[in-house]
Design a protein that fits this description.
heterotrimer; A: about 0% strand; flat; C: about 260 residues; alpha/beta; Rossmann fold; six-stranded mixed β-sheet; four-stranded antiparallel β-sheet; 10 strands; about 35% helix; about 25% strand; cell membrane (chain A); Peptide/nickel transport system permease protein (chain A)
């Protein structure tokens, strides 16, 4: 008890004694604030379940996700204790497929975040900081990407690159950075003329140091919020590509592709298409709730 | 002389993580037809005092007082219709920065006419006539131009004059001016003060002048309340200010640099925790 | 009068600063000249729109010089400034709430310039810088939002001094602070100047602050120089220009009609 209290005091100290304590204290304050938001905690819980399911898929899933049971007796079975979510037309356990599918979903989400966020941040902050022709060139390119509906552009890329989960990720990443670039640029424009940027310029810092060390950290939080909120859309796009047969290829347990294959039996065997649909819905909702909560905590405009 | 405004043990509190924080604590004073200055540094509660009198405390704050009356009308728990009767007609407020208190998408003239309309219907030309009159009463030399101007087209001093003009529409008995000249250049400051001074003299208004600038207030007001951390630490006639008793008042008075060679280093203010008690 | 050749540490000749072009052109500064000697404290006084801050920003390279020259140590300054220039000339901004990066600790604010210029013993220098401006080590790892306005301005002064410059450009360093805090910061600046032999160029709208801090000053209005005065000339009411006299009267406070002191 007393150890817990003193650790909390250490984190909330107004006079941190080291760089590490200051950083951890700041993170802890953010966490305390986030924890007060119940819905954000629900969202975080869902995202954590997704991550855990992806890591321990082999342990959790009771059946093999790729090869089914006896095609004569185990096809299209309704949900039961043996098959929590029923089986599909290949006699595969849907629950096991959804658990394994979380790996694909998480991979799409993580890869898109890792590829699109830095591109958007780099393009946006550079354009905003330098202005002039750099801004014009970079933002016109961004506009070109923004002019196409995301799914259509992704479809075109996948059609050109060939179907498959990797190409779907690349296509989604390429189509999702422009909004982040816009956002980062808008933030940079408000930061660019701030006194603290002038101050570091007067210390002799170069453009690279200013953008990376001073502008990016301030744009980061609003971009993170935006990316988190976009995750739902990314999952849906991935599922959409899968549904159209341009994303993950059979027999991979991708949720969108599972809906597509279950669509044929939706009247008689509703669970085949509905279960992966619920999974997509719940995970999208989770990211949205988390993003909303993060916005309240991280967005500098919402803060005091 | 009867007192227009009576304030006894006024407190304003805001909720915070560690329980309610009282930003104004047991402030008592009364005001006749005179100029009263309220002076304090940031966070002293001077602005919240002014807002509480006008019922403009932010909705999360709570105002308590043993007695708070304007011209015999109890302001504690006054209904919104009572406030409508009072605000604009009998008491008004001038804020620090005209940029934030004037509607940016309406011409000055329309805003003043609007204020007249709220007081009762008159013909359009009559209201325009009145608006031009009130604009010239705050020494705007070219009222026609200001009438048709948008707030951003006016300089700070001109905007503040227009703001004061708007507050005069209802011919109030009490004007609360919250740092009315702090956003203005020193030379313009004096013009605006002169206007306020004339108004108080000619119309017999009561004025509460809220400011951080002790010297300015003492040269302008009859009486000064000095606030520190939500409390009135000293109440003193402006002309006796050099005999101020409270160390905080003395500190505030002496810490300002002077043009004709003051002391060096400047005397600083030692804050005594006992002042909070 | 000084000769046309440059005698001062900083010499500004016929400085003009123009922003925008075409119909949006704004001439913020038109033809301002002055010299600042080594170790001197020089003031620029003016009201809003007088171009006083723009002169300061032009000296340190934040505003474009469109006419005239600025020389430092006898050499004309070129845009952009060399990194070495910033080791000699530093600036303190008006608003301490806007001049510190909201996500950087005080430690980071103070150690970054040392990293940029590759100075040795950063730990010791940061510690000494905090002591010099009267803040203890307890402030080192705080964030700006945990500090009061006066404390922030002390940090800003520490940041400006950590590169051990010769010249400090002070842009209304106390106008955002309460009167009692202003006195503390002015005393600190005064003490630092005497201890380190610094040269100050101080910009303010407050004649009293400039008279207190500076030996010589120039009064500006609408981007032009009104007159140049010494402190004693100001104190003995030897101002020759109408505008300067108006400023002097205004800074004495309000006088009601018909009363005299």
């Amino acid at each position: 008890m007393s150890a817990g209290v003193s650790r909390r005091d250490w984190l909330l100290s107004e006079q941190p004694a080291s760089r590490r304590q200051a950083k951890l204290g700041q993170a802890y304050r953010t966490w305390v604030q986030l924890r007060r938001n119940k819905l954000a905690m629900v969202g975080l819980g869902i995202v954590l379940v997704l991550v855990l399911a992806a890591i321990f898929a082999d342990v959790i899933a009771p059946y093999d996700p790729l090869s089914g049971g006896d095609l004569r007796t185990a096809r299209l079975l309704p949900p039961s204790w043996a098959h929590l979510m029923g089986t599909d037309d290949q006699a595969r356990d849907i629950f096991s497929r959804i658990v394994h599918g979380s790996r694909l979903t998480l991979m799409v989400v993580a890869m898109v975040a890792v590829i699109a966020t830095p591109i958007g941040l780099a393009v946006g902050t550079t354009a905003g900081y330098f202005g002039g022709w750099v801004d014009t060139v970079l933002m016109r390119i961004t506009d070109i990407f923004l002019a196409f509906p995301r799914l259509i552009l992704a479809l075109a890329f996948v059609a050109a690159l060939g179907p498959g989960i990797e190409n779907a990720i690349i296509a989604i990443a390429i189509t999702s950075w422009p909004p982040y670039a816009r956002l980062a640029r808008a933030e940079t424009l408000t930061i660019r003329n701030a006194d603290y940027i002038d101050a570091i310029r007067l210390q002799g810092a170069g453009s690279g140091r200013i953008i990376w060390g001073h502008v990016v950290p301030l744009c980061m939080s609003s971009v993170i919020v935006r990316v988190t909120l976009d995750m739902a859309g990314i999952i849906l796009t991935a599922a959409g590509l899968g549904f159209l047969g341009l994303g993950a290829q059979p027999p991979q347990p991708e949720w969108g592709a599972m809906i597509a294959s279950g669509r044929r039996f939706i009247i008689d065997f509703w669970w085949v298409a509905t279960m992966p649909g619920i999974a997509i819905f719940v995970v999208s909702l989770g990211f949205n709730l988390l993003g909303d909560g993060l916005r309240d905590v991280l967005d500098p405009k919402a803060a005091q | 002389m009867t007192n227009m405004l009576e304030v006894k043990n006024l407190s304003v509190a805001f909720p915070s993580r560690d329980g309610p924080v009282r930003v104004v604590r047991d402030v008592s004073f009364s005001l006749g037809r005179e100029r009263l200055g309220i002076v304090g540094e940031s966070g002293s509660g001077k602005s919240q005092t002014g807002r509480a009198i006008l019922g403009l405390t932010p909705s999360n704050g709570t105002v308590t007082a043993d007695h708070l009356a304007f011209d015999g009308i109890d302001l504690r728990g006054a209904s919104s219709s009572t406030w409508r009767q009072l605000r604009g007609r009998r008491m008004s407020m001038v804020m620090q920065d005209p940029k934030f208190s004037l509607n940016p998408v309406m011409t000055i003239g329309r805003q003043i006419v609007e204020a007249y309309r709220r007081l009762g219907r008159k013909s359009k030309s009559e209201m325009r006539e009145k608006a031009l009159e009130v604009l010239s009463s705050v020494q705007i030399r070219d009222p026609e131009r200001v009438f048709d101007a948008y707030p951003h087209e006016l300089s700070g001093g001109m905007g503040q004059r227009a703001m004061i003009a708007m507050m005069l529409v209802g011919e109030p008995d009490l004007l609360i001016a919250d740092e009315p000249t702090s956003a203005l250049d020193v030379t313009v400051q004096l013009d605006v003060l002169r206007i306020l001074d004339d108004l108080v003299r000619d119309r017999g208004m009561g004025l509460i002048f809220i400011s951080h600038d002790l010297r300015l207030v003492s040269s302008f007001c009859d009486r000064v309340l000095v606030m520190y951390a939500g409390r009135v630490v000293e109440e003193i006639a402006a002309r006796d200010l050099h005999n101020a008793q409270h160390p905080y008042t003395c500190g505030l008075l002496h810490c300002l640099p002077k043009i004709d060679g003051g002391v060096r280093p400047l005397p600083t203010l030692e804050r005594d925790p006992a002042w909070l008690a | 009068m000084t000769a046309s050749n440059t005698k001062g540490l900083i010499s500004v000749r016929d400085l003009g600063v123009t922003f925008g072009h075409g119909t949006n052109e704004v001439k913020a500064v038109r033809g301002v000249s002055f010299d600042v000697a080594q170790g001197e404290s020089f003031g620029i006084v003016g009201e809003s729109g007088s171009g006083k801050s723009t002169v300061l920003r032009a000296i340190c390279g934040l505003a474009p010089t469109s006419a005239g020259t600025i020389t430092f140590q006898g050499e004309a300054l070129k845009a952009p400034r060399q990194p070495a220039f910033y080791r000699d000339v530093q600036m303190v901004f008006q608003d301490p709430y806007a001049s510190l990066h909201p996500r950087h600790t005080i430690d980071k604010v103070l150690s970054e310039p040392l990293a940029i210029h590759g100075l040795d013993d950063p730990e010791g220098r940061v510690e000494r810088a905090l002591e010099d401006v009267g803040l203890g080590q307890g402030f080192r790892f705080r964030f700006p939002h945990q500090l009061s306005g006066g404390q922030r301005q002390r940090v800003a002064i520490a940041r400006a001094l950590i590169l051990e410059p010769q010249v400090l450009l002070l842009d209304e360093p106390t106008s955002a602070l309460d009167a009692s805090i202003q006195a503390e910061v002015l005393n600190l600046l005064d003490a630092l100047r005497h201890k380190r032999g610094l040269t100050y160029v101080l910009v303010s709208h407050d004649l009293a602050v400039v008279a207190h801090m500076c030996e010589r000053l120039v009064v500006m209005q609408h981007g032009r120089e009104v007159e140049e005065l010494t402190r004693s000339a100001l104190q003995h009411h030897e101002a020759t220009q109408e505008y300067t006299r108006n400023l002097l009267v205004a800074s004495e406070g309000f006088k009601a009609k018909g009363t005299s002191t």
